[in-house]
Amino acid sequence: MAEQTAHPATGQIRDDTPTGPAEGPRAAGTGGARRSDSAVVRDALGVGVAVGLSGFAFGVTSAGAGLTLLQTCALSLLVFTGASQFALVGALAGGGNPFTAAAGAFFLGTRNAFYGLRLSQLLALPGFAKPFAAQWVIDETTAVALAQPDRRSARLGFTATGLTLYVLWNLTTLLGALGAEALGDTAAWGLDAAGPAVFLALLAPMLKTTTERATAGIAVLLGLGLLPVLPAGVPVLVSALAAPAVLWFRGRRARKEETVR
Amino acid sequence: MNGTHVWLAIGLTVAGCYLVKLIGLLVPAQTLERPLVQRLAALLPVALLAALTAQQTFGTGTDLVLDARVAGVAAAALALVLRAPFLVVVGAAVAVTAGARALGG
C-alpha cells in the first residue's frame, strides 16, 4: 500500500529504530504543543489520497496477472498491505505454487509486526480493540501516528489515516481491476511494468547505506540467477537470505576490527 | 491459472499478513526490540523488493528476457532519481513500456 508514498516517513521510522523505547515517551509525552484535530486529519487525508490512488495500479496489475475481480478485491480488503499484494499476484502470474507465492508475500508483511510494536506503546489500545486495529497497522498509519506530539493526536491520526486508506485503497483496486478488464490486453498498454515500478519506488528510499545496497545487489543476482533453475516463487525466497548474509558478514568484520584494535 | 490454487494462496496470505500485524500489537515490547532482530526486519524488505523488481523486469515464467519492460523500469528509475512523486514513477514505467511495444520492442 502506501508503502509507496510513505518512504520518507518510513525511512524516518527506521532511522529512529536504534533509539528504541526513547521514542515512545517522546511521541506520546506531554512535550510540544497540542495539534488541532483538523491538522491531524489533514495529514491523514494527504497520505491517504496519494497512496489510495496507487490501489488503481494494484487492481490493474492483479487483473492483468489473471486474477478475477473477486480475488483482486478480496486481496485489498483482507490483506491490505500493498507490497505483499503486488508480490503475491506477481508470483502467481509467474507460475509459482500457492505456498511459495504466499511465503514471499508473508515475508514482505513481517515489517508490520515491528510497526505494531511501536504503535502498541504509543496508542495504548485496550485489548478488545487490538484485533480490529491490527488490520490498519501498515507503513502509512504508523508514519502518521508516530509524527503526532501526543497520544490523543496519535490515535486520531492512526484512525483517520487507516480509514482513508482502507476506503480509497479498496475503491481504487476495484476501479483498476474493472479498467483492466475493459482494456483487455494489459501488456499492450505497458501495465505489466507497473508492478516492478512499484517495487522499485518502494525500494529506492531504503537504499541508504552500503549495507542496504549490498543486500539489494546480492538479492538481484540470486533472484535472476536462480530464476531459470528453481521452481517459480522459490528464487525470491532464497534471495531473502541476502539480508542475514550481509548482516552476518558485517558483524564478522566488525568483530575482526575490534580484535585488531 | 488454477482458481483453487489462487484462493489457497490468497487465504494463506490473508492469514499470514493479518497475524504478523496482530503479533506486533500483542507481544511484549522486549521480544522484538533486540537490535539484530530490528536490523534483519529492516533489511528483509530490501532483499525481497530488489529481487522482485529484477524478476518482474527481466523474467517471464522461468525465462530471462529483454523486452519493453526494461525501458519502462529504466524510466521509473530515472523518475525516482529526479524525485518524482510515486504516481509519476509508475506512470512513466507504463507509458514508456507501452511506447516501446508500440514501436515493436
UniProtKB/TrEMBL annotation, chain A:
InterPro entries: Brnchd-chn_aa_trnsp_permease. Keywords: Cell membrane, Membrane, Transmembrane, Transmembrane helix, Transport. It comes from the Bacteria. The keyword Membrane applies. Residues 18-28 have a biased composition (Low complexity). Residues 1-35 are annotated as: Disordered. It is a multi-pass membrane protein. Pfam families: AzlC. GO terms for biological process: L-valine transmembrane transport. One of its GO terms (cellular component) is plasma membrane. It is found in: Cell membrane. The chain crosses the membrane at residues 44-66, 86-108, 156-180, 186-207, 219-249. Belongs to the AzlC family. PANTHER family: INNER MEMBRANE PROTEIN YGAZ. This is Branched-chain amino acid ABC transporter permease. It comes from Streptomyces filamentosus. The lineage of its organism: Bacteria, Bacillati, Actinomycetota, Actinomycetes, Kitasatosporales.
UniProtKB/TrEMBL annotation, chain B:
It comes from the Bacteria. Keywords: Membrane, Transmembrane, Transmembrane helix. The lineage of its organism: Bacteria, Bacillati, Actinomycetota, Actinomycetes, Kitasatosporales. The chain crosses the membrane at residues 6-28, 40-58, 70-96. This is Branched-chain amino acid transporter AzlD. It comes from Streptomyces filamentosus. InterPro entries: Brnchd-chn_aa_trnsp_AzlD (IPR008407).
